[in-house]
Amino acid sequence: RLVQQAPSVPRKGLPFRRFIASPKLAGTVQRCLQDGASRDPLPVLLECAPGPGVLTRTLLNAGVRVVALESNPAFLPNLQSLENSLDGQLKVISGDFFRLDPLGSGTLKPPAVCSEKLFDAMGVSAVPWRADVPVKIFGILPQNKERTTLWRLLFALYECSSIYRYGRIELNFFVSEKEYKVLTAKPGEASAYQAFSVLWQVGCEIQLLHMEPWSSFVTNLKNGELAIPKSVRLPNDHLCLVRLTPRQNLFTGSLEPTNTSTFIFMVKQCFAKPTCRLTDRLNSWSLDDTDQVLSSLAIQKKAEARHLCPEDYRRVFEALQNSSVFTETWFHDEALESVRNINL
C-alpha cells in the first residue's frame, strides 16, 4: 500500500540542511539507488537525515528495507509513527551520521553516533572485504562539512575502520557539482586534480547517478533561501548524486590497511607542489634509486606530480615499499601527523 505523504519541513531550530521534498525527485533518487540491483534480498539502505521522509516513503513503497538515521527531534515522531505502521521494513534511529565516530575518549554525546552500535542496531554483521556490498548509505552532504566529511570517510576506507570494518560499504551522496569535479578530475586538470582526487579514485569506483539543480531541494532557511555556494574555477550549478563503491582489489599487492597512512601521506606530499617533478620529490626523501624506480614503472623522469594518473601513484608506492624510505622513523611520524590533522 502507498504510505501517506510527509508533513512540511520545519524551518526553525535546525542547523542548515537541504531536503528532498519533491515526490518526483524522490522517485528519481529511488530508481538511481536501485539501478542494476539484481540481488535478492537487497542490502539494507541507511538513509542519513531523512527529515520529512519524502524519500523514505518512496523507498518503502518500492520495497526497500530502510534504516532512517535522524538527529532532529522535530522529525522523529512522524518517522517513528511510520515505523510502527510497518512490519519491520523501517527502523528509525536517533543520531547524526555526519558526526559518526568522533575522535576522543569518553561517552558519546548525542547526536554523535558510534558505528559499532549503529550497525548492531541495524542487524548488520561484518563480511569479508571481497564480499558483496552489505549496506548502502544515502545522504545529502552538509554544505559546510562536505570536504571534511569526505576526508574522514576516505581515511576510514583506507584503514578499514568505522563503517568499513563491516565490508565494502557503498556511499550514495548528493555532493556539490564542484566537489564532484574534484572527485573525478583527471591528470592535467589544474583547477581540480588533487591528492583528494587520486585517493578517492584509487579507493573507489565513482559513478555519477544523477545531476539535479539546487532549486529542486528545500532548505530550512528563512524564506526558503537556497544558499548556493559560490565557485570561481569550477561549475557548480547542480547537486550531483554520486556512488562511491570501494574496490574489491583495493588491498592487494603491497597496499594494506596497516600502511595506507603512508600511501596517503606520499600522495599529499607529491601534490604539495603539483608542478614539482616526481624525481625531485622522491630525491627529497633521500631515495637513492629514483631513476631506477621510475624506469621500472615506465614513468618519465620529467613527469610532474599533476600528470601522474591515480594508478601510477599506487604503483610508485608499491615500488617504494621495497626500498628503505618508508621504514625511516621521520617518514612514519610525518604520515601519522598528517592523519591526525585531517581527522580533527
Automatic annotation (TrEMBL):
The record's subcellular location field reads: Mitochondrion
Q: Which GO terms describe its biological process?
A: transcription initiation at mitochondrial promoter
Natural source organism: Hypotaenidia okinawae
Which SUPFAM superfamilies does UniProt cross-reference here? S-adenosyl-L-methionine-dependent methyltransferases
Residues given in the record as S-adenosyl-L-methionine binding sites: 20, 70, 96
Enzyme Commission number(s) of this protein = 2.1.1.-
Q: Which family does it belong to?
A: Belongs to the class I-like SAM-binding methyltransferase superfamily. rRNA adenine N(6)-methyltransferase family.
Its GO CC terms are: mitochondrial matrix
For this protein, the record's InterPro entries field holds: KsgA/Erm, rRNA_Ade_methylase_Trfase_N, SAM-dependent_MTases_sf
Query: Would I find RNA-binding among this entry's keywords?
Result: yes
Q: Where is the Ribosomal RNA adenine methylase transferase N-terminal domain?
A: 28-225
Pfam families referenced in this protein's UniProt entry, alphabetically: RrnaAD
GO MF term (any one): RNA binding
Instruction: Alphabetically list the UniProt keywords.
Output: Methyltransferase, Mitochondrion, RNA-binding, rRNA processing, S-adenosyl-L-methionine, Transcription, Transcription regulation, Transferase, Transit peptide
Presence of the UniProt keyword Zinc-finger in the record: no
| PROSITE patterns the UniProt entry points to | SAM_RNA_A_N6_MT (PS51689)
Question: The organism sits in which domain of life?
Answer: Eukaryota
Name of the protein this chain belongs to: rRNA adenine N(6)-methyltransferase
